[in-house]
Amino acid sequence: MRIALLQINPTVGDIEGNTKKIAEAHNKAVLQNVQLCVAPELAITGYPPLDLLFRPSFIERAEKALARLAKECARVPLLVGTISRSLPGSGKPLHNIAALLRDGFVQGFFKKRLLPNYDVFEEEIYFEAGRDPCFFELGDERIGVTICEDVWNDKKFWPRPRYPCDPLAELAENNCKTVINISASPWHVEKQVLRFDMLRAAARSHNIRIFFCNQVGGNDELLFDGNSFWCDASGNLMAVAKSFVEDIFICDTDLGSLGTIYVPPPVEKDVFDALVIGTRDYVRKCGFKEVIIGLSGGIDSAVTAVIAAKALGSTRVSGVAMPSRFSSKESVKDAQILANNLNIGFLQIPIDNTFQAVLDQLAPAFVGKVWDVTEENIQSRIRGLTLMALSNKTGAMVLTTGNKSELAVGYCTIYGDMCGGLAVISDAPKTLVYRLAKWINRHREIIPKSTITKPPSAELRPNQKDQDSLPPYDVLDAILELHVEQHLCARDIIAKKIAPEETVRRVISMVEKAEYKRRQAAPGLRITPRAFGRGWRMPIAKK
């Protein structure tokens, strides 16, 4: 049996464009003598469509697109993800389905049974769950159909399954020797290895072949890696599609082998590739062509600029240095060198005259008050104003450059350096940003060495260093990982003795107090299991 997994990059809401993309991939696969084509979860609507699903016109367009697709893809059966209306009465009005298109018609609907409602998922808001095992006949083969979460409930793999039923086990009981899973499975670091391990274990446990078809690309903050694959009934990983690129992936079960050994890429490469496709897709799918980045000469803006240049091409990226009286000559020089190395546009717009004008304006109101963070934030807000003015005038999107460590503890200026349309590295801890910089420079010096080696500083007051206000970043990031990603409280973190009790409690207090800032931050690209985005639901007003 030859199956084509159509690993495509759909755009949420672009029903016509997505349908065309599916049809083109299907027709290319047909030329390779396949017996079945498979497209990802909700490939017609894009994933996740969220409240677009409340619009009757959106549902109607999806239904018409499915009928057209059936006629355009009549030569070889196609299993494709989309939506369907549920029966009138109680429950949600829609199902998340895999539609079987064969001989020019829609021959079957297979309903998603397990609807995730945790982390970044909110499917119970929109969909009614299916109740019955899903399968169809292809020649002499009975093929089971699952949709994403349906395969994430193996009681032998997970210590605490989330749902009372296991669709994979039920398909095995119905004599399905082959199971297809269509997915829109968001990526985070090491997610692909988890999927491999989970589905290989399920294949061995139920003695079934599993074909996993995942989408690729970025939709808002969610990143999708592709990495579609199939494994045999012994759990051997037979072949894996490409990461972070579209792929028409042909699986031939008649070509027996001992399987393939998957070697995970370095974390830095995985993260870099993910941020590149996330930046490219966010800018492109939002209708922008160019981006602007404030270049401080620091590590965060440097890494962001490299990602942007790789994602969009150097001619569509501009860096802006905005020195004040506290900016070192070395930082301005580093910004210029980086821009030259990347061959991106570069502007230098000094802000000191503007800064002094604002100080003079506020002087009567500030009489008797000492210099503090207020004056520091004024500089950052002038820079934000400058970048947004350039954005308005040129139509380019501003990319913010703050990292996860800073965003977590509020070491950033709301309406200042937080201004922009996309926060590219906002889910990358500072220590990971340094690792990315060194990985970027692995062959030649792109980011100036001095940018990497000098102590990090906001340069908003004389001789300022980040560690004047924060613990060392290796300590800070260790605390944040335990608190943010593993949900540990101060007591449990203190017990691990990674930092003094006073430091742990201060960091957690800073995280709590900065919630209002994060709520107003630009959308960020998710690369860790728990980012400050849709999966982070914390109240602002609390004790």
Question: Care to describe what's here?
Answer:
The structure is a single chain. This protein is α/β, with parallel strands linked by helices. The chain has two domains: 2-256, Nitrilase/N-carbamoyl-D-aminoacid amidohydrolase (4-Layer Sandwich); 271-519, 3-Layer(aba) Sandwich (Rossmann fold). 36% of the residues lie in helices and 18% in strands. It has 16 helices and 19 strands. It has helices spanning 15-30, 56-72, 167-173, 191-206, 267-285, 299-312, 329-342, 352-362, 373-394, 404-409, 430-440, 449-453, 473-485, 490-495, 501-513, 515-519; strands spanning 2-7, 36-38, 78-85, 94-102, 105-111, 135-138, 141-147, 178-183, 209-214, 216-219, 222-225, 229-231, 237-240, 247-252, 291-294, 317-321, 345-348, 397-400, 422-423. The chain has a six-stranded mixed sheet with strand order 5-4-3-2-1-14. Strands 6-7-8-9-12-13 form a six-stranded mixed sheet, covered by helices on one side. The protein is elongated, with a radius of gyration of 26 Å. It starts with a strand and ends in a 24-residue tail after the last helix.
The proportion of residues in beta strands is 15-25%
How many structural domains can be distinguished in the coordinates?
2
Distance between the termini: 60 Å
Name of the CATH first level of the largest domain: Alpha Beta
CATH 4th-level superfamily of the largest domain: Carbon-nitrogen hydrolase
Structural class: alpha/beta
Q: Give the overall shape.
A: elongated
CATH topology of the largest domain: Nitrilase/N-carbamoyl-D-aminoacid amidohydrolase
Largest sheet: 6 strands, mixed
CATH structural architecture of the largest domain: 4-Layer Sandwich
Radius of gyration: 26 Å
Count of individual helical segments: 16
Can you count the beta strands?
19
List the uncertain runs. Answer: none
Oligomer: single chain
Q: How helical, in percent, are the residues?
A: 25-40%
